[in-house]
Write a structure and sequence with these properties.
about 500 residues; mainly alpha
Length: about 500
């Protein structure tokens, strides 16, 4: 009994329960597939809640965990993973916006170049009163008089000193005999010859030094170029290993788009019900819209226009004409077209957004509006509140149209100035400003967050694009692309 009590006491002191078996399996090994699925769904719902509460870092962490668990449980291309991919990509986009906002706020209060900032250490003379001005003038006059007197006294003293020095020098001058002059001439000739010899030797040495320095500079330049190439290659490898949140967001949204498209257009499209098909179509449109927002943040306006145009075509085919989702896509497409220097098309798209909103207001007043899925669970929603909300949005869109027209006029003016400088004359048309200026004049810059450039080739089959991307990522990392993207995102968020 004593030995047993001693053993139990030792286990209790070490933090172990005496009734627990030593070789008990870990908690992870005890988890069943049902437990893992529940954990993944819990992480997904937690991430959604963090998104609603605007706790973006926590949302990124929870949704990344959900993607990882679901890809392990169901497979990376399973329909169950699509929603997690979508929300994870959306959270990464918001994270990138937060980072760009932090960088922008760091420069708040710093005057830009050309701003009229009052950084002078001297008081403004326009703000000095008459009494202060008179007092300053009197003090300045006194100081100038004192300075003048001091200068006059200094001149008198310097003249006296120069006279004494001149008399002393004339008393000490003596003539020299002919022999001394001759010896001095001989010494000067010898000195000249030695100087010529030294000069020739110095020139030879200088030529040798120049050649050596030239060879050394060539060697250094070659080594420097080699080192720069190695540094650039190392930087590229580092960028691939540690992509930005925008790049990760794009990757996850592409995966979501691939899965949603496969559900709607794949081999099993006939097995889904109309209700499920409507839901998936809505999610796919949201994915295209978010991809367009990623490209806008990245200043890749060509890709933004492509994704937003696809989103708009699908929404028009599946949603009622007064849907606010269509109006939002029209607005985003107008912004992208404006930055892409297609000003006329941008204005048309923005005006289309206003037309959809005005039709919505008319239907709300007549109580014939289409149901808004985003507000069906909002117990505080009323038609009057929605009408007021839409009416507050229309002036903002009109202001955006005005800004777009100003961008167009500025572009035309700059093109005309460039033509005058080159010598082609000052004549220019508005059409030239919208088409030919795209390669020479840049619009007002969008939000500066990132310097990466996402380029994608246009493919006829989006599923093939995503499969190729997954194959490339697998060959590079030796693991699944989803897992590697999730791991990189988790590292970057921590």
């Amino acid at each position: 009994m004593a030995a047993t009590d001693l053993e139990n006491q030792t286990q209790a002191q070490s933090g172990k329960s005496p009734n627990t078996a030593e070789a008990s399996p870990s908690k992870k090994n005890d988890e069943t597939p049902v437990d893992q699925k529940a954990q993944a769904l819990m992480a997904l719902s937690t991430g959604k809640r963090h998104m609603l509460c605007q706790d973006i870092p926590a949302a990124v962490e929870s949704l990344g965990e959900a993607c990882e668990l679901m890809s392990v449980e169901f497979g990376e291309k399973a329909p169950e993973c699509a929603e997690a991919y979508f929300y994870y990509g959306k959270a990464l986009l918001e994270m990138a916006r937060l980072e760009s906002g932090v960088l922008g706020n760091a420069l708040d209060g710093v005057p830009e170049e050309g701003d009229d900032a009052n950084d002078s250490q001297v008081e403004d003379p326009e703000k000095v009163t008459e009494e202060e001005r008179t007092e300053v003038e009197g003090k300045v006059g006194e100081a100038m008089e004192e300075n003048y007197d001091e200068c006059e006294n200094a001149k008198i003293l310097s003249k006296k000193d120069s006279k004494v020095t001149t008399n002393g020098d004339t008393n000490g001058v003596h003539d020299k005999d002919g022999e001394s002059e001759k010896s001095e001439e001989d010494e000067e000739m010898e000195g000249d010859e030695s100087q010529e010899e030294e000069g020739a030797a110095g020139e030879a040495n200088a030529d040798g030094l120049k050649e050596a320095e030239a060879e050394k500079s060539e060697t250094d330049s070659v080594e420097g170029e080699k080192k720069e190439g190695e540094d650039a290659a190392a930087q590229e490898v580092e960028d691939e290993d540690d992509p930005s949140n925008l790049q990760l967001a794009w990757e996850m949204l592409e995966l979501a788009k691939m899965v949603f498209t496969e559900q709607l257009e794949g081999e099993k499209k006939g097995s889904i019900t109309p209700e499920v098909k409507t839901t998936i179509e809505k999610k796919l449109c949201e994915t295209f819209l978010t991809l367009g927002e990623v490209s806008l943040e990245n200043e890749n306006y060509v890709q933004a226009v492509e994704d937003l145009s696809l989103c708009l075509d699908r929404q028009k085919a599946s949603l009622p004409s007064d849907s606010r989702s269509i109006a939002e896509t029209h607005y985003q497409l107008g912004v992208a077209l404006g930055f892409h220097m297609k000003f006329e098309e941008a204005v048309v798209s923005l005006e289309a957004a206003i037309a959809v909103l005005e039709a919505r207001i008319t239907n709300l007043k007549s109580k014939t509006e289409s149901p808004d899925e985003t507000k069906k669970d909002n117990i505080f929603h009323t038609r009057e509140k929605e009408i007021a909300e839409i009416e507050s949005l229309i002036p903002e869109i009109k202001e955006k149209i005005t800004d777009t027209n100003e961008m167009k006029d500025e572009s035309v003016r700059k093109v005309a100035e460039m033509k005058e400088q080159i010598g082609f004359g000052s004549s220019s048309s508005s059409g030239a400003g919208s088409s030919s200026s795209s390669s020479t004049v840049k619009p007002i810059s969008a939000k500066p967050i990132s310097s990466i450039s996402i380029k994608r080739k246009a493919e006829s089959d989006p599923t093939e694009v995503a499969v190729k991307k997954a194959a490339i990522s697998t060959s590079k990392t030796g693991s699944d692309p989803v897992g590697s993207a999730i791991e990189r995102a988790k590292k970057s968020s921590t």
